[in-house]
Amino acid sequence: MSNQISIPEFYSGKNIFITGGTGFLGKAIVEKLLRSCPEIDRIYLLARAKKNKTASERIQEITDAPLFDVIRAKNPEIFKKISLLEGDIIKENLGLSDNDLKIFYEKVNVIIHSAATISFNEPLKIAVNTNLQPIKELIKLARKTKRLDCLIHISTIYTNWFERDIREKIYKPKYDPNEIIEMSKTLTDEELNKISLMGHANTYTFTKSLAEYLLSQEGHDLPAVIFRPSVVTTTLKEPFPGWIDNWGGTAPTLL
Protein backbone atom coordinates (compact mmCIF):
# COMPACT_ATOMS: atom_id res chain seq x y z
CA MET A 1 0.00 0.00 0.00
CA SER A 2 2.97 2.32 0.51
CA ASN A 3 3.35 2.97 -3.21
CA GLN A 4 -0.21 4.24 -3.62
CA ILE A 5 -0.74 7.94 -4.29
CA SER A 6 -3.65 10.18 -3.44
CA ILE A 7 -6.15 11.38 -6.04
CA PRO A 8 -4.75 14.96 -6.04
CA GLU A 9 -1.27 13.49 -6.49
CA PHE A 10 -2.43 11.41 -9.43
CA TYR A 11 -3.97 14.42 -11.15
CA SER A 12 -1.03 16.70 -10.47
CA GLY A 13 0.40 17.90 -13.77
CA LYS A 14 -2.24 16.00 -15.76
CA ASN A 15 -4.24 17.23 -18.74
CA ILE A 16 -7.89 16.12 -18.63
CA PHE A 17 -10.23 15.96 -21.61
CA ILE A 18 -13.93 16.03 -20.68
CA THR A 19 -17.00 15.48 -22.83
CA GLY A 20 -20.34 16.61 -21.46
CA GLY A 21 -18.73 19.37 -19.42
CA THR A 22 -21.72 21.61 -20.02
CA GLY A 23 -24.09 19.06 -18.45
CA PHE A 24 -25.05 18.68 -14.81
CA LEU A 25 -22.62 15.89 -13.94
CA GLY A 26 -19.89 17.35 -16.15
CA LYS A 27 -20.03 20.69 -14.34
CA ALA A 28 -19.72 18.95 -10.99
CA ILE A 29 -16.66 17.02 -12.24
CA VAL A 30 -14.96 20.19 -13.49
CA GLU A 31 -15.63 22.02 -10.22
CA LYS A 32 -14.37 19.13 -8.10
CA LEU A 33 -11.17 18.80 -10.14
CA LEU A 34 -10.42 22.51 -9.89
CA ARG A 35 -11.17 22.68 -6.16
CA SER A 36 -9.62 19.42 -4.95
CA CYS A 37 -6.87 18.88 -7.52
CA PRO A 38 -5.51 22.41 -8.06
CA GLU A 39 -2.18 21.12 -9.42
CA ILE A 40 -3.76 19.77 -12.59
CA ASP A 41 -2.16 21.22 -15.68
CA ARG A 42 -5.25 21.82 -17.81
CA ILE A 43 -8.87 20.80 -18.39
CA TYR A 44 -9.92 20.60 -22.03
CA LEU A 45 -13.69 20.84 -22.42
CA LEU A 46 -15.37 19.60 -25.58
CA ALA A 47 -18.28 21.91 -26.45
CA ARG A 48 -20.31 23.06 -29.42
CA ALA A 49 -22.41 26.08 -30.27
CA LYS A 50 -26.03 25.66 -29.17
CA LYS A 51 -29.20 27.74 -28.91
CA ASN A 52 -27.69 30.91 -30.39
CA LYS A 53 -24.68 30.70 -28.07
CA THR A 54 -21.11 30.03 -29.14
CA ALA A 55 -19.12 27.24 -27.57
CA SER A 56 -17.02 29.85 -25.73
CA GLU A 57 -20.12 31.54 -24.33
CA ARG A 58 -21.41 28.20 -23.06
CA ILE A 59 -18.13 27.51 -21.27
CA GLN A 60 -18.23 30.99 -19.72
CA GLU A 61 -21.75 30.30 -18.47
CA ILE A 62 -20.46 27.21 -16.69
CA THR A 63 -17.78 29.01 -14.71
CA ASP A 64 -20.16 31.87 -13.90
CA ALA A 65 -22.61 29.45 -12.27
CA PRO A 66 -23.14 29.44 -8.46
CA LEU A 67 -21.57 25.97 -8.35
CA PHE A 68 -18.17 27.64 -8.81
CA ASP A 69 -18.64 30.40 -6.19
CA VAL A 70 -16.51 28.60 -3.59
CA ILE A 71 -13.52 28.03 -5.85
CA ARG A 72 -13.96 31.48 -7.43
CA ALA A 73 -13.66 33.14 -4.03
CA LYS A 74 -10.65 31.03 -3.10
CA ASN A 75 -8.70 31.03 -6.36
CA PRO A 76 -10.23 33.00 -9.27
CA GLU A 77 -7.11 32.47 -11.38
CA ILE A 78 -7.73 28.72 -11.52
CA PHE A 79 -10.24 29.15 -14.35
CA LYS A 80 -7.31 29.88 -16.64
CA LYS A 81 -6.68 26.12 -16.54
CA ILE A 82 -9.85 25.53 -18.60
CA SER A 83 -9.49 25.42 -22.38
CA LEU A 84 -12.18 24.94 -25.00
CA LEU A 85 -11.86 22.33 -27.73
CA GLU A 86 -14.78 23.00 -30.02
CA GLY A 87 -16.43 19.89 -31.39
CA ASP A 88 -19.44 17.61 -31.31
CA ILE A 89 -19.61 14.04 -29.99
CA ILE A 90 -21.84 12.85 -32.82
CA LYS A 91 -19.27 13.77 -35.50
CA GLU A 92 -16.21 11.90 -36.76
CA ASN A 93 -13.18 12.56 -34.54
CA LEU A 94 -15.67 14.29 -32.23
CA GLY A 95 -15.69 17.19 -34.68
CA LEU A 96 -12.25 18.33 -33.53
CA SER A 97 -10.12 20.46 -35.85
CA ASP A 98 -6.70 19.23 -36.97
CA ASN A 99 -5.03 21.60 -34.52
CA ASP A 100 -7.21 20.45 -31.62
CA LEU A 101 -6.62 16.80 -32.54
CA LYS A 102 -2.89 17.48 -32.30
CA ILE A 103 -3.42 18.90 -28.80
CA PHE A 104 -5.51 15.86 -27.90
CA TYR A 105 -2.92 13.35 -29.12
CA GLU A 106 0.09 15.08 -27.57
CA LYS A 107 -1.22 16.37 -24.24
CA VAL A 108 -4.23 14.47 -22.91
CA ASN A 109 -3.58 12.11 -20.00
CA VAL A 110 -7.11 11.43 -18.76
CA ILE A 111 -10.32 11.22 -20.78
CA ILE A 112 -13.61 11.57 -18.89
CA HIS A 113 -16.57 10.74 -21.13
CA SER A 114 -19.60 12.27 -19.46
CA ALA A 115 -21.62 13.34 -22.51
CA ALA A 116 -24.91 11.52 -23.04
CA THR A 117 -28.57 11.97 -23.64
CA ILE A 118 -30.35 10.86 -20.48
CA SER A 119 -33.86 11.16 -21.86
CA PHE A 120 -35.75 7.89 -21.53
CA ASN A 121 -37.98 8.76 -24.49
CA GLU A 122 -35.28 9.62 -27.02
CA PRO A 123 -35.77 8.13 -30.51
CA LEU A 124 -33.37 5.25 -30.99
CA LYS A 125 -31.38 7.00 -33.75
CA ILE A 126 -30.61 9.96 -31.48
CA ALA A 127 -29.79 7.71 -28.52
CA VAL A 128 -27.40 5.63 -30.67
CA ASN A 129 -25.70 8.71 -32.12
CA THR A 130 -25.25 10.26 -28.67
CA ASN A 131 -24.70 7.33 -26.29
CA LEU A 132 -23.10 4.65 -28.46
CA GLN A 133 -21.31 5.98 -31.55
CA PRO A 134 -19.07 8.41 -29.58
CA ILE A 135 -17.48 5.47 -27.77
CA LYS A 136 -16.10 4.19 -31.08
CA GLU A 137 -14.63 7.62 -31.80
CA LEU A 138 -13.09 7.90 -28.34
CA ILE A 139 -11.50 4.47 -28.62
CA LYS A 140 -10.02 5.42 -31.98
CA LEU A 141 -8.69 8.74 -30.68
CA ALA A 142 -7.45 7.30 -27.38
CA ARG A 143 -5.21 4.83 -29.21
CA LYS A 144 -3.40 7.75 -30.86
CA THR A 145 -2.66 9.63 -27.66
CA LYS A 146 0.93 9.61 -26.49
CA ARG A 147 0.40 9.91 -22.73
CA LEU A 148 -2.93 8.30 -21.89
CA ASP A 149 -3.29 7.15 -18.28
CA CYS A 150 -7.02 6.46 -18.18
CA LEU A 151 -10.25 6.61 -20.17
CA ILE A 152 -13.24 6.96 -17.83
CA HIS A 153 -16.64 6.18 -19.31
CA ILE A 154 -19.59 7.33 -17.20
CA SER A 155 -22.40 4.84 -17.66
CA THR A 156 -25.34 4.04 -15.36
CA ILE A 157 -26.16 1.31 -12.86
CA TYR A 158 -29.34 0.72 -14.84
CA THR A 159 -27.64 -0.63 -17.97
CA ASN A 160 -28.70 -4.08 -16.83
CA TRP A 161 -31.56 -3.21 -14.52
CA PHE A 162 -33.41 -6.47 -15.23
CA GLU A 163 -30.61 -8.51 -13.61
CA ARG A 164 -31.43 -9.59 -10.05
CA ASP A 165 -27.89 -8.82 -8.85
CA ILE A 166 -25.82 -6.33 -10.82
CA ARG A 167 -22.16 -7.31 -10.59
CA GLU A 168 -19.05 -5.34 -11.49
CA LYS A 169 -18.74 -7.07 -14.83
CA ILE A 170 -19.69 -6.44 -18.44
CA TYR A 171 -22.93 -8.06 -19.53
CA LYS A 172 -23.08 -9.23 -23.13
CA PRO A 173 -26.05 -7.64 -24.92
CA LYS A 174 -28.29 -9.53 -27.31
CA TYR A 175 -27.33 -7.21 -30.16
CA ASP A 176 -23.95 -6.46 -31.68
CA PRO A 177 -23.31 -2.73 -30.93
CA ASN A 178 -21.76 -2.22 -34.35
CA GLU A 179 -24.83 -3.64 -36.07
CA ILE A 180 -27.02 -1.17 -34.19
CA ILE A 181 -24.70 1.68 -35.20
CA GLU A 182 -24.89 0.65 -38.86
CA MET A 183 -28.65 0.24 -38.68
CA SER A 184 -28.97 3.75 -37.25
CA LYS A 185 -27.20 5.03 -40.37
CA THR A 186 -29.25 3.12 -42.93
CA LEU A 187 -32.75 2.67 -41.48
CA THR A 188 -35.41 5.30 -41.13
CA ASP A 189 -36.51 6.50 -37.70
CA GLU A 190 -39.73 4.55 -38.09
CA GLU A 191 -37.87 1.34 -38.95
CA LEU A 192 -35.40 1.80 -36.10
CA ASN A 193 -38.12 2.38 -33.54
CA LYS A 194 -39.59 -1.03 -34.37
CA ILE A 195 -36.44 -2.79 -33.10
CA SER A 196 -36.98 -4.70 -29.89
CA LEU A 197 -34.99 -3.28 -26.97
CA MET A 198 -34.54 -6.81 -25.62
CA GLY A 199 -35.86 -6.28 -22.12
CA HIS A 200 -34.78 -2.68 -21.74
CA ALA A 201 -37.47 -0.24 -20.67
CA ASN A 202 -36.12 2.62 -22.77
CA THR A 203 -33.51 3.63 -25.34
CA TYR A 204 -31.32 5.19 -22.63
CA THR A 205 -30.45 1.97 -20.79
CA PHE A 206 -30.41 0.05 -24.08
CA THR A 207 -27.72 2.24 -25.69
CA LYS A 208 -25.76 2.59 -22.47
CA SER A 209 -25.57 -1.19 -22.18
CA LEU A 210 -24.34 -1.47 -25.77
CA ALA A 211 -21.73 1.23 -25.12
CA GLU A 212 -20.29 -0.65 -22.15
CA TYR A 213 -19.91 -3.81 -24.19
CA LEU A 214 -18.41 -1.96 -27.14
CA LEU A 215 -15.78 -0.39 -24.90
CA SER A 216 -14.95 -3.74 -23.30
CA GLN A 217 -14.46 -5.38 -26.70
CA GLU A 218 -12.88 -2.75 -28.91
CA GLY A 219 -11.12 -0.89 -26.12
CA HIS A 220 -9.91 -3.93 -24.18
CA ASP A 221 -6.28 -2.89 -24.64
CA LEU A 222 -6.85 0.60 -23.25
CA PRO A 223 -6.57 1.68 -19.58
CA ALA A 224 -10.34 2.12 -19.38
CA VAL A 225 -12.74 2.40 -16.45
CA ILE A 226 -16.53 2.19 -16.52
CA PHE A 227 -18.27 4.13 -13.76
CA ARG A 228 -21.91 3.27 -13.04
CA PRO A 229 -23.62 5.91 -10.88
CA SER A 230 -27.18 5.36 -9.71
CA VAL A 231 -29.66 8.26 -9.44
CA VAL A 232 -27.74 11.52 -9.81
CA THR A 233 -29.19 14.31 -7.72
CA THR A 234 -28.16 17.40 -5.76
CA THR A 235 -24.79 17.88 -4.10
CA LEU A 236 -24.66 16.50 -0.57
CA LYS A 237 -21.88 18.64 0.94
CA GLU A 238 -19.45 19.92 -1.69
CA PRO A 239 -18.97 22.64 -2.68
CA PHE A 240 -22.16 23.37 -0.71
CA PRO A 241 -25.30 21.30 -0.01
CA GLY A 242 -28.19 21.19 -2.44
CA TRP A 243 -26.78 22.48 -5.71
CA ILE A 244 -28.69 21.42 -8.82
CA ASP A 245 -29.32 23.11 -12.16
CA ASN A 246 -32.22 21.14 -13.63
CA TRP A 247 -35.63 19.72 -12.73
CA GLY A 248 -34.99 16.18 -13.92
CA GLY A 249 -35.17 12.93 -12.00
CA THR A 250 -35.84 13.23 -8.28
CA ALA A 251 -35.18 16.99 -8.00
CA PRO A 252 -38.84 18.09 -7.73
CA THR A 253 -39.54 15.47 -5.06
CA LEU A 254 -36.48 16.46 -3.03
CA LEU A 255 -37.40 20.13 -3.22
UniProtKB/TrEMBL annotation:
GO MF entries: alcohol-forming long-chain fatty acyl-CoA reductase activity; alcohol-forming very long-chain fatty acyl-CoA reductase activity
Keywords from the named record: Lipid biosynthesis, Lipid metabolism, NADP, Oxidoreductase
E.C. number: 1.2.1.84
Entry annotated with the keyword Oxidoreductase: yes
Residue ranges annotated for the Thioester reductase (TE) domain, each copy included: 18-248
Keyword Lipid metabolism: yes
Catalytic activity: a long-chain fatty acyl-CoA + 2 NADPH + 2 H(+) = a long-chain primary fatty alcohol + 2 NADP(+) + CoA
Top-tier EC class: oxidoreductase
Stored Pfam families: NAD_binding_4 (PF07993)
Biological-process GO terms, alphabetical: long-chain fatty-acyl-CoA metabolic process
Assigned GO CC terms: peroxisome
Cross-referenced PANTHER family: FATTY ACYL-COA REDUCTASE CG8306-RELATED, MALE STERILITY PROTEIN 2-RELATED
Family classification: Belongs to the fatty acyl-CoA reductase family.
Protein's name in the database: Fatty acyl-CoA reductase
Organism: Polypedilum vanderplanki
Organism phylogeny: Eukaryota, Metazoa, Ecdysozoa, Arthropoda, Hexapoda
